[in-house]
């Protein structure tokens, strides 16, 4: 076993669930704002979709060897990317079968794939449902053509409604992903997108503020003065508009950027991340995490994170040679575990238990309550939890800095 792999674990903490993430690194085009590990046709010579599927299945076998006799089936499975539905439904079903054969899939497990609205059909969505997928997350981003053009999204806005209808026919739960704060997007544009998304009655909505990364095409446009960033105050107004519109339509926020019609409609896979549960990431550049555990010989093993080589061809070659696909590995000391628990947990509507905050930082909570960033009743009530107000959601990073060790 290479050093980058996690140590075998025969006795995980029983209260932690286990999830599987499958990274599919293909898109029809690379959007101008995207800095994910994805590749458009022709960008990676020698890396094929068929070769990717074989390599991903090989990594699942490798993972089973690393995890040892871990008894936990996958409670969530999430196919992300990229655009997973660049693979045909038969290939996605084959990968899901690989998860099933490697770990098992728990009864009632949430099984999600992301999708571009233009990359699915009635037949493909029905095939995914038959294979065991339960949920599809469509990258809608906006309903306004000029906003989609700035983002370099290629789908036709009208196709979102059609894709949602096909998903419903197949019995799949539906999530819509939106982006706000695109250069040139007005508050009225954003409200149009919100109204359009809500009219489709999805089970779940994600709304993310656009972050323009320097290495992207949009980052280059920003440096050259071809576009101007959206004013932060306008972005805050857009967030509040989303929260108001979604709440009025019956959606409740459960994480800073996510709303669900009922608690059962929340993305259980992402909740596992925010609650610091365990997951294995399959695919080029995928990250994995196993929390503190007991090794095969009874030794204590620290929480461990590792990530795979990013290039699809290098990933496939390593696995074809029987090697570990991980590029690097790190063990988290106690302070790092606490910091991550705060960074992730404070973003949830359920909040963070006050006992998870280092004792020397708990006095800061009173100041956060006084500033209107943290709910005072939740902080002093029976549960003693740090729960963000809406103002606190807008300034979540500032709250985290006050609480972090």
UniProtKB/TrEMBL annotation:
Highest taxon above the source species: Bacteria
A GO MF label: 4 iron, 4 sulfur cluster binding
UniProt xrefs under Pfam families: Radical_SAM
GO CC terms, sorted: cytoplasm
Main location: cytoplasm
One of the GO BP terms on file: porphyrin-containing compound biosynthetic process
Subcellular location: Cytoplasm
Keywords: 4Fe-4S, Chaperone, Cytoplasm, Heme, Iron, Iron-sulfur, Metal-binding, Oxidoreductase, S-adenosyl-L-methionine
Keyword Signal in annotation: no
Entry-linked InterPro entries: Aldolase_TIM, Coproporphyrinogen-III_oxidase, Elp3/MiaA/NifB-like_rSAM, HemW-like, rSAM, rSAM_sf
Keyword 4Fe-4S included in the entry's annotation: yes
Domain Radical SAM core, first and last residues per copy: 12-252
Stated role: Probably acts as a heme chaperone, transferring heme to an unknown acceptor. Binds one molecule of heme per monomer, possibly covalently. Binds 1 [4Fe-4S] cluster. The cluster is coordinated with 3 cysteines and an exchangeable S-adenosyl-L-methionine.
Similarity annotation: Belongs to the anaerobic coproporphyrinogen-III oxidase family. HemW subfamily.
Name of the featured protein: Heme chaperone HemW
Organism encoding this protein: Demequina lutea
């Amino acid at each position: 076993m290479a050093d980058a792999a996690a140590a075998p674990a025969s006795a995980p903490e029983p209260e932690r669930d286990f999830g599987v993430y499958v990274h599919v690194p293909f898109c029809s085009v690379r959007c101008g704002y995207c800095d994910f590990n994805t590749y458009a046709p022709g960008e990676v010579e020698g890396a094929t979709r068929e070769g990717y599927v074989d390599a991903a299945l090989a990594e699942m076998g490798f993972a089973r060897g690393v995890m040892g006799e871990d008894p936990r089936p996958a409670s969530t499975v999430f196919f992300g990317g990229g655009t997973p539905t660049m693979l045909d439904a038969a290939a996605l079903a084959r990968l899901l079968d690989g998860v099933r054969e490697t770990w098992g899939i728990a009864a009632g497990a949430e099984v999600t794939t992301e999708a571009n609205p233009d990359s699915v059909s009635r037949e493909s969505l029905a095939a995914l449902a038959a294979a065991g997928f339960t949920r599809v997350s469509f990258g809608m981003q906006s309903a306004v053509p000029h906003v989609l053009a700035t983002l370099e999204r290629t789908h036709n806005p009208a196709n979102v409604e059609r894709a949602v209808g096909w998903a419903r026919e197949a019995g799949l739960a539906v999530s819509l992903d939106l982006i706000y704060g695109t250069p040139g997007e007005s508050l009225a544009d954003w409200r149009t997108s919100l109204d359009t998304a809500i009219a489709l009655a999805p089970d779940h909505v994600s709304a993310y503020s656009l972050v323009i990364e320097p290495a992207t095409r949009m980052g280059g446009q920003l440096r050259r003065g071809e576009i101007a960033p959206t004013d932060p105050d306008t972005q805050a107004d857009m967030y509040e508009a989303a929260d108001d519109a979604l709440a009025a339509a019956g959606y409740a926020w459960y994480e800073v950027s996510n709303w669900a019609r009922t608690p059962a409609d929340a993305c259980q896979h992402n909740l596992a991340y925010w609650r610091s549960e365990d997951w294995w990431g399959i695919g080029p550049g995928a990250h994995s995490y196993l929390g503190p555990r007991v090794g095969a010989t009874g030794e204590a093993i620290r929480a461990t994170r590792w990530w795979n080589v990013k290039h699809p061809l290098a990933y496939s070659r390593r696995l074809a040679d029987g090697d570990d696909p991980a590029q690097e590995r790190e063990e988290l000391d106690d302070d790092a575990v606490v910091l991550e628990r705060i960074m992730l947990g404070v973003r949830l509507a359920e909040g963070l238990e006050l006992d998870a905050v280092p004792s020397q930082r708990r006095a800061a909570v009173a100041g956060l309550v006084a500033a209107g960033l943290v709910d005072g009743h939740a902080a002093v009530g029976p549960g003693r939890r740090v729960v963000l107000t809406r103002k606190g959601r807008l300034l979540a990073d500032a709250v985290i800095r006050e609480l972090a060790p």
